[in-house]
Amino acid sequence: MWQAKKNNTASVIDDFKGDQSWRIFRIISEFTEGFEKLSAVGDAISIFGSARLKPDHPYYLKTVELATLLSQNGFAIITGGGPGIMEAANKGAYQENQLSVGLNIELPMEQNPNPYQDISLNFRYFFVRKVMFVRYSMGYVCMPGGFGTLDEFFEALTLMQTHKIYPLPLVLFGCEFWGGLMAWIKTTLIDYETISPGDLDLIKVTDDPQEVLDFMRAHRTWKSQQRDAAKQQQKAHCVELLCKS
Q: Closest Cα partner for 143 from 71, 217, 90?
């Protein structure tokens, strides 16, 4: 069985013994296209979740509701561009005439671009796509999902914990779904002292779309204040330089 899986995926995995220079050019081109097409994106929330949940699933419907609410309050929506939860999030934004972005990835299964994308980018490399999520997202919402959702969740946590990015709201939506994971984090990881109790302050778990909106709006206000303070500091510095010249 494992051998069959290896054979099935061999065609979509780069041959790392091949021409490395051409691979570098492709990586650079993906970064360039991403930065160019997303440069005008304003305050945006990335919503992650399973590609396997169907349109009649309660969490699909809840994602449409959440994305609609966020869109009505001026937030663009970014997803991985595929079906399931990603489609639901893009749909909520698209129906509200809010910017809907899909960062699609080449995969052997499940990843078919959904039709609710104003900006649709296609990536071959996961790490390039991850940079786009972090660079252009003001907050993350993780709906119920699999390994990909967990990957985005823990990477964001790691980047914030190590101060590689500014703090951003990190929401786990679905108390029942995420409860076991959070219980393990709060017990095993804390007991073994592999994380600090304060690290849990970075995470909010909820079932309420309005609570997510309030969380994101509060962060947007804080971020706006930080921007204004930075502009004032820059202005004061320019004045100081002019006075000295």
A: 90
